[in-house]
Amino acid sequence: DTSLAEVNSFSPSMPMSPSSMINQYKFEDEPELRDLFITVDDPESHITAIETFITYRVVTKTSRGEFDSSEYEVRRRYQDFLWLKSKLEEAHPTLIIPPLPEKFIMKGMVERFSDEFIETRRKALHKFLNRIADHPTLTFNEDFKIFLTAQAWELSSHKKQGPGLLSRMGQTVRAVASSVRGGVKNRPEMFTEMNDYMETFSQKINVLDKIAHRIYKEEREYFNEMKEYGPIHTLWSASEEDIADSLKGVASCIDKCCKATEKLMAGLSENLLPILHEYVLYSEILMGVLKRRDQIQSELDSRVDALVNKKTEKDLFSEEIGKLEDKVECANNALKADWDRWKQNMQCDMRSTFTNVAENNLRYYEECLATWESFLTSQTVDLHVEEDSEDRP
Question: pTM score, two decimals?
């Protein structure tokens, strides 16, 4: 298997294109082990008297024996994805559940229910399900299987079987009580280092996200100005007969650079912005996972303190403490395994994303430079021809 050190080194043998790196890292060694393929596509609008919403087709193909069929097709709305995420968090509190796109988007970016917004969300939902499918534990979750296979009425019926109000209130009260108690006394050093890492990572990824959005905004403003700038030279050429060809040439160059800029913007919006924002959401998820681990640890610590101070019922307390110690150990092991896996995926994603951006920028500037160089060369040739004709007797 490709080690993290190998992924982080720029060795001559390592393919440098993002797609090549991803293929080598994820699928080259064990492609036959993948037995669950999910596609999210075909968004469809639904308008009722109460609300307007979008559903997406979820197609699943699998060779797993626990599935009754090898292929399923269902339609799901965003709320169904939210339900799945909450069930995964409930069943696996110290595993890193992939993020979902937010329900609401930032004002001024794209309009809700526009084609751009729907397509962006579809891609995010597709990635969400496939990240779960590729996870060694989450992929076998029963609620995940029901999400992929149940018809709408079956899923609705299953949702109603969730925890009752009192159970949810109890979970909320325990979470609040845990946060009030303060820091964990016996937190292992490893998880303190994880917490410090995530605080730094969160700051940096948020800064990168803001910078990327600012770059995209500036590119869009530049693109809009060029769209107006080119036609001006075309109109100008109509009133300047002597330099009409040169002005038309400038207009043509601006038009080509305008198209190249539009392509560059598409690369930013499709590749850079979604990945950075996904890891902004991941940083929030990981901080939540670490807090849930601390909550389990805190529950054990409080029981140990109670046992020390209590003279009676020691056997009962000892049994409860034994169960809590097993729970903490399971939580720690789950998070440690998921942490290493997440860091490897994150570093691979970051490398492929920024390599892709660098390659797109190089192509963009080379294309624009070649456009203007070609134009200037043609103008120089024309100027020499005119000078030669003037020198002749």
Answer: 0.78
The strands making up 52-62's β-sheet, listed across from edge to edge, are 36-47, 52-62, 71-77
For residue 281, give every residue at least 6 positions away whose Cβ sits within 8 Å of its Cβ, in sequence order, or none.
Answer: 99, 100, 102
**Structure tokens given for 258:** 């305008």
Q: State both tokens at 95.
A: 């595993």
**Amino acid of residue 342:** W
CA 319, CA 63: separation in Å to the nearest integer? 43
Return the HEC string of the chain.
CCCHHHHCCCCCCCCCCHHHHHHHHHCCCCHHHCCEEEEEEEEEEEECCCCEEEEEEEEEEECCCCCCCCEEEEEEEHHHHHHHHHHHHHHCCCCCCCCCCCCCCCCCCCCCCCHHHHHHHHHHHHHHHHHHHHCCCHHHCHHHHHHHHCCHHHHHHHHCCCCCHHHHHHHHHHHHHHHHHCCCCCCCHHHHHHHHHHHHHHHHHHHHHHHHHHHHHHHHHHHHHHHHHHHHHHHHHCCCCCCHHHHHHHHHHHHHHHHHHHHHHHHHHHHHHHHHHHHHHHHHHHHHHHHHHHHHHHHHHHHHHHHHHCCCCHHHHHHHHHHHHHHHHHHHHHHHHHHHHHHHHHHHHHHHHHHHHHHHHHHHHHHHHHHHHHHHHHHHHHHHHHHHHHHCC
Summarised one tens digit per residue, pLDDT across range 201-254 is 999 999 999 999 999 999 999 999 999 988 999 899 888 888 899 999 999 999
Which one-letter amino acid corresponds to residue 374? S
Within 10 angstroms of residue 10's Cβ, the number of other Cβ atoms is: 7
CA separation for the pair 149, 71 (Å, rounded): 9
In the chain the domains, ranked by start, together with CATH numbers, are: 36-143 (3.30.1520.10), 192-391 (1.20.1270.60)
Cα–Cα distance, 170 to 246 (Å, whole number):
76
Cα first-last separation, the chain: 78
Nearest to 145 by CA among 66, 253, 220, 243: 66
What would the pLDDT profile of 255-294 be if each residue is shown by its tens digit? Answer: 999 999 999 999 999 889 999 999 999 999 999 999 999 9
Tokens 């970016």: give the residue.
109
